[in-house]
Design brief:
Largest sheet: 4 strands, antiparallel
Number of helices: 2
Shape: globular
Strand content: 35-45%
Radius of gyration: 16 Å
Distance between the termini: 35 Å
Low-confidence stretches: 3-22, 188-192
Strand order of the largest sheet: 4-5-6-7
Protein backbone atom coordinates (compact mmCIF):
# COMPACT_ATOMS: atom_id res chain seq x y z
CA UNK A 1 0.00 0.00 0.00
CA UNK A 2 1.16 3.52 -0.69
CA UNK A 3 1.53 5.97 2.22
CA UNK A 4 -1.80 7.74 1.70
CA UNK A 5 -3.68 4.45 1.28
CA UNK A 6 -2.10 3.07 4.49
CA UNK A 7 -3.06 6.21 6.39
CA UNK A 8 -6.67 6.01 5.17
CA UNK A 9 -6.89 2.29 6.02
CA UNK A 10 -5.50 2.85 9.54
CA UNK A 11 -7.81 5.83 10.11
CA UNK A 12 -10.81 3.77 8.99
CA UNK A 13 -10.00 1.00 11.48
CA UNK A 14 -9.37 3.48 14.30
CA UNK A 15 -12.56 5.45 13.55
CA UNK A 16 -14.66 2.26 13.46
CA UNK A 17 -13.16 1.12 16.81
CA UNK A 18 -13.63 4.50 18.51
CA UNK A 19 -17.18 4.99 17.23
CA UNK A 20 -18.39 1.51 18.13
CA UNK A 21 -16.82 1.61 21.61
CA UNK A 22 -17.49 5.14 22.79
CA UNK A 23 -20.50 6.70 21.14
CA UNK A 24 -23.33 4.28 21.82
CA UNK A 25 -26.19 6.79 21.50
CA UNK A 26 -24.50 9.85 20.01
CA UNK A 27 -26.09 9.27 16.59
CA UNK A 28 -29.67 8.52 17.69
CA UNK A 29 -31.05 11.66 16.02
CA UNK A 30 -30.27 12.76 12.47
CA UNK A 31 -31.23 16.28 11.42
CA UNK A 32 -30.51 17.21 7.81
CA UNK A 33 -31.82 18.52 4.50
CA UNK A 34 -34.89 20.76 4.51
CA UNK A 35 -36.23 20.36 8.08
CA UNK A 36 -35.76 16.56 8.02
CA UNK A 37 -35.33 14.46 11.15
CA UNK A 38 -34.92 10.73 11.72
CA UNK A 39 -35.14 9.37 15.26
CA UNK A 40 -33.48 5.99 15.98
CA UNK A 41 -34.45 5.80 19.68
CA UNK A 42 -37.25 3.25 19.10
CA UNK A 43 -34.84 0.76 17.51
CA UNK A 44 -36.20 1.42 14.03
CA UNK A 45 -35.64 4.62 12.09
CA UNK A 46 -38.69 6.86 12.24
CA UNK A 47 -39.16 10.08 10.33
CA UNK A 48 -40.23 12.50 13.01
CA UNK A 49 -42.70 15.34 12.48
CA UNK A 50 -42.61 16.23 16.18
CA UNK A 51 -40.52 19.29 16.95
CA UNK A 52 -39.27 19.66 13.35
CA UNK A 53 -35.79 21.17 13.02
CA UNK A 54 -35.12 24.53 11.43
CA UNK A 55 -32.20 23.27 9.36
CA UNK A 56 -32.03 23.74 5.61
CA UNK A 57 -28.76 22.09 4.57
CA UNK A 58 -28.06 21.56 0.88
CA UNK A 59 -25.40 18.95 1.62
CA UNK A 60 -23.58 18.46 4.93
CA UNK A 61 -24.91 18.67 8.47
CA UNK A 62 -24.18 17.14 11.87
CA UNK A 63 -26.10 16.37 15.05
CA UNK A 64 -25.23 14.78 18.38
CA UNK A 65 -27.23 13.17 21.17
CA UNK A 66 -26.40 12.47 24.81
CA UNK A 67 -25.70 9.01 26.29
CA UNK A 68 -29.49 8.41 26.59
CA UNK A 69 -30.16 9.26 22.94
CA UNK A 70 -31.63 12.71 23.63
CA UNK A 71 -30.76 15.33 21.03
CA UNK A 72 -28.25 17.90 22.30
CA UNK A 73 -27.71 20.14 19.26
CA UNK A 74 -27.27 20.19 15.49
CA UNK A 75 -25.56 22.32 12.85
CA UNK A 76 -25.31 22.94 9.13
CA UNK A 77 -21.74 24.24 9.54
CA UNK A 78 -22.91 27.86 9.61
CA UNK A 79 -25.40 27.93 12.50
CA UNK A 80 -25.83 25.82 15.64
CA UNK A 81 -29.29 25.00 17.02
CA UNK A 82 -30.14 23.55 20.44
CA UNK A 83 -32.52 20.62 21.02
CA UNK A 84 -35.48 23.06 20.95
CA UNK A 85 -34.52 24.42 17.51
CA UNK A 86 -33.29 27.76 18.87
CA UNK A 87 -30.01 29.19 17.60
CA UNK A 88 -27.47 28.82 20.41
CA UNK A 89 -25.84 31.94 21.86
CA UNK A 90 -22.89 32.84 19.59
CA UNK A 91 -24.16 30.07 17.27
CA UNK A 92 -24.14 31.98 13.98
CA UNK A 93 -21.32 32.80 11.60
CA UNK A 94 -19.49 29.47 11.64
CA UNK A 95 -17.13 29.12 8.68
CA UNK A 96 -18.71 26.06 7.04
CA UNK A 97 -20.51 26.33 3.70
CA UNK A 98 -24.01 25.14 2.79
CA UNK A 99 -22.62 23.39 -0.29
CA UNK A 100 -19.76 21.57 1.44
CA UNK A 101 -20.24 17.78 1.41
CA UNK A 102 -19.07 17.63 5.04
CA UNK A 103 -19.81 21.13 6.21
CA UNK A 104 -19.73 20.02 9.87
CA UNK A 105 -18.50 17.20 12.09
CA UNK A 106 -19.24 17.10 15.84
CA UNK A 107 -16.74 15.42 18.17
CA UNK A 108 -17.16 15.16 21.96
CA UNK A 109 -14.38 16.76 23.97
CA UNK A 110 -15.62 15.80 27.44
CA UNK A 111 -19.02 15.38 29.08
CA UNK A 112 -20.09 18.97 28.47
CA UNK A 113 -17.97 20.25 25.59
CA UNK A 114 -18.06 19.41 21.89
CA UNK A 115 -15.97 20.42 18.91
CA UNK A 116 -17.64 21.37 15.66
CA UNK A 117 -15.27 21.04 12.71
CA UNK A 118 -16.31 22.93 9.59
CA UNK A 119 -15.14 22.92 5.98
CA UNK A 120 -15.58 25.46 3.25
CA UNK A 121 -16.74 24.59 -0.28
CA UNK A 122 -15.37 24.73 -3.81
CA UNK A 123 -17.91 27.45 -4.69
CA UNK A 124 -16.19 29.68 -2.11
CA UNK A 125 -12.69 28.73 -3.26
CA UNK A 126 -12.09 26.69 -0.07
CA UNK A 127 -10.86 29.97 1.44
CA UNK A 128 -11.99 29.26 5.03
CA UNK A 129 -10.46 25.77 4.92
CA UNK A 130 -10.84 23.45 7.91
CA UNK A 131 -11.75 25.21 11.17
CA UNK A 132 -13.15 24.30 14.58
CA UNK A 133 -15.54 25.84 17.07
CA UNK A 134 -16.38 24.75 20.62
CA UNK A 135 -19.81 24.22 22.20
CA UNK A 136 -20.06 24.16 25.99
CA UNK A 137 -23.30 22.54 27.15
CA UNK A 138 -22.75 23.69 30.76
CA UNK A 139 -23.11 27.36 29.77
CA UNK A 140 -26.78 28.42 29.43
CA UNK A 141 -27.81 24.92 28.32
CA UNK A 142 -25.46 25.19 25.32
CA UNK A 143 -23.33 28.06 24.02
CA UNK A 144 -20.73 28.33 21.29
CA UNK A 145 -17.78 29.58 23.35
CA UNK A 146 -15.05 29.54 20.69
CA UNK A 147 -15.62 30.03 16.99
CA UNK A 148 -13.76 29.56 13.67
CA UNK A 149 -10.30 28.54 14.82
CA UNK A 150 -8.23 27.73 11.69
CA UNK A 151 -6.57 24.33 11.27
CA UNK A 152 -5.80 23.95 7.55
CA UNK A 153 -6.32 26.13 4.47
CA UNK A 154 -7.05 25.53 1.74
CA UNK A 155 -8.74 22.28 2.70
CA UNK A 156 -11.13 19.99 0.87
CA UNK A 157 -14.74 19.39 1.89
CA UNK A 158 -13.79 16.07 3.59
CA UNK A 159 -12.76 15.56 7.24
CA UNK A 160 -12.30 12.76 9.76
CA UNK A 161 -11.60 12.85 13.50
CA UNK A 162 -10.47 10.19 16.01
CA UNK A 163 -9.37 10.20 19.63
CA UNK A 164 -5.61 10.11 20.10
CA UNK A 165 -5.73 7.84 23.18
CA UNK A 166 -4.64 10.53 25.64
CA UNK A 167 -7.76 12.71 25.81
CA UNK A 168 -7.16 14.79 22.68
CA UNK A 169 -8.05 14.25 19.04
CA UNK A 170 -6.50 13.77 15.66
CA UNK A 171 -8.31 15.61 12.90
CA UNK A 172 -7.45 14.73 9.31
CA UNK A 173 -8.05 17.14 6.47
CA UNK A 174 -7.16 16.95 2.79
CA UNK A 175 -4.96 19.75 1.49
CA UNK A 176 -6.45 21.04 -1.78
CA UNK A 177 -4.39 20.53 -4.91
CA UNK A 178 -2.27 17.73 -3.40
CA UNK A 179 -2.51 14.07 -2.49
CA UNK A 180 -1.71 14.97 1.13
CA UNK A 181 -3.94 14.14 4.07
CA UNK A 182 -2.80 16.33 6.94
CA UNK A 183 -3.28 15.12 10.54
CA UNK A 184 -3.59 17.91 13.08
CA UNK A 185 -3.77 17.71 16.86
CA UNK A 186 -5.97 20.10 18.80
CA UNK A 187 -4.31 22.35 21.38
CA UNK A 188 -4.08 20.55 24.75
CA UNK A 189 -5.57 23.58 26.53
CA UNK A 190 -8.73 23.14 24.45
CA UNK A 191 -8.86 19.34 24.44
CA UNK A 192 -8.88 18.92 28.24
Amino acid sequence: MKGTAKLLFCLSIILWTVCSAGAQNAAKNWLFGNNARIDFNSGSPLASAMNPPTINALEGSASISDSNGNLLFYTDGRQVWDRNNNVMPNGTGLAGHDSSTQSALIVPCDCNRYFIFTTDAQQHGYSNGLQYSLVDMSVNGGTVTLRNQPLLAPAAEKIAAVRDGSGGFWVVGHKIGTDQFIPTTLPPAIAY
